[in-house]
């Protein structure tokens, strides 16, 4: 870290750096802070006003913070409450692809080393997560946020879609509405 930048040692200092940051450009203090603390999950999972750091930054138009977090962490920057949700999704896709290849070989009369396996059970054991969580991620992605009385996404929240894309921002009766950020996982843009 360069001289003149205070060495922050807790999450509260992170929020101070974010609040002090310029909305449209990075003054250097922010990126130095985040890089110095990038190994700490506290950085991504800490909350203020019911928001993690990325969602808070989107809603408060702290574009330098948003840009820095996405550049450094990609999808991890979204800080889901199910901390390994993105890992579950990636592993599901990987294992499903392997299983599809095995099925194709069997259909073509070829032999496969090991038979067809229960991917959900395998990942549940491997990642120490319930099979229900694995199935939820596989079938409909993950939503971490507020709901209305009809149990629709409403207010602020973050959604990890089955295709790997992520949206964080405001919802109104289950629809994206207001300030938000959509991250395309395949094309790596937002």
Summarize the SSE layout with pairings.
Blueprint: H1 11-20, H2 29-36, H3 41-45, E1 47-48, E2 51-52, H4 53-59, H5 63-73, H6 85-107, H7 119-127, H8 131-140, E3 142-147, E4 153-160, E5 166-172, E6 175-183
Antiparallel strand pairs: 1-2, 3-4, 4-5, 5-6
Helix pairs in contact: 2-5, 6-7, 7-8
**What form results from the Cα inertia axes?**
elongated
Mean pLDDT: 77
What about the largest sheet? 4 strands, antiparallel
Strand order of the largest sheet: 3-4-5-6
What is the overall number of helices? Answer: 8
End-to-end distance:
28 Å
What's the β-strand tally? Answer: 6
Order of helices and strands: HHHEEHHHHHEEEE
Radius of gyration: 20 Å
Structural class: alpha+beta
Binned strand content? 15-25%
Structural overview:
This protein is α+β, with helices and mostly antiparallel strands. It has two domains: about 10-80; about 85-185, no CATH class. Helices cover about 45% and strands about 20% of the residues. It is built from eight helices and six strands, in the order αααββαααααββββ. It has helices spanning about 10-20, 30-35, 40-45, 55-60, 65-75, 85-105, 120-125, 130-140; strands at about 45-50, 50, 140-145, 155-160, 165-170, 175-185. The protein has a four-stranded antiparallel beta sheet. Strand 1 (about 45-50) and strand 2 form a beta hairpin. Helix 2 packs parallel to helix 5 (about 65-75) and helix 6 (about 85-105) runs antiparallel to helix 7 (about 120-125). The chain is elongated and about 65 Å long. Residues about 1-10 have low confidence and may be disordered.
């Amino acid at each position: 870290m360069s001289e003149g930048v205070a060495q922050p040692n807790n999450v509260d200092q992170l929020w101070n750096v974010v609040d002090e940051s310029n909305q449209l450009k990075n003054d250097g203090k922010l990126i130095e802070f985040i890089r110095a603390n990038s190994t700490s999950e506290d950085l991504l999972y800490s909350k203020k006003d019911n928001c993690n750091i990325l969602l808070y930054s989107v809603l408060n138009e702290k574009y330098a913070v948003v840009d820095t977090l996405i550049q450094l962490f990609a999808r991890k920057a979204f800080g889901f409450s199910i901390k390994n949700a993105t890992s579950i999704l990636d592993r599901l896709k990987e294992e499903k692809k392997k299983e599809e290849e095995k099925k194709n070989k069997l259909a073509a009369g070829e032999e496969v080393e090991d038979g067809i396996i229960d991917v959900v059970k395998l990942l549940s054991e491997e990642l120490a997560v319930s099979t229900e969580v694995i199935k939820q991620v596989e079938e409909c992605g993950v939503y971490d946020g507020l709901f209305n009385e009809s149990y629709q996404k409403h207010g602020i929240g973050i959604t990890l879609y089955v295709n790997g894309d992520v949206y964080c921002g405001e919802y109104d009766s289950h629809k994206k509405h207001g300030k938000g950020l959509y991250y395309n996982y395949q094309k790596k843009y937002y």
